[in-house]
Amino acid sequence: MLQKDVLGQDIFLLGRPGPLRRRLAMQFLELTNRELEFVSLSRDTTESDLKQRREIKSGTAIYFDQSAVRAAIHGRVLVLEGIEKAERNEHSLEELERWQLVRVSEDFRVVALGIPVPRYLGNPLDPPLRSRFQARDVGITNY
Fold this sequence. Notes:
Structural class: alpha/beta
Shape: globular
């Protein structure tokens, strides 16, 4: 995990259901003294749950940054648990340019925690998302 972090690469920990992957990620972050933002994904998680949420305050709509945006801007580690529950989503180049995205911090990393699909229930990772990671199998004997 440290090698991936030093190389500026994201991490995907793959293993059986249970707390082992999360525990390993948290220990790594504690040892490297890194701040984190945590998101537990479900089938009901939407894009706005990851990016920005609109709230009405004193009759005015205000947008609040969510975990993924805060991690990207402030150089924290984004821990995504249950990545196999994310739905596939592809956007065109025109859509991405129209969104005028903000550059992320050099220290921003993603640690994704998932289970093998189709052995367990879930969705295979979207090819653009899958290409971001090299998976590491976290088995009981690996810990």
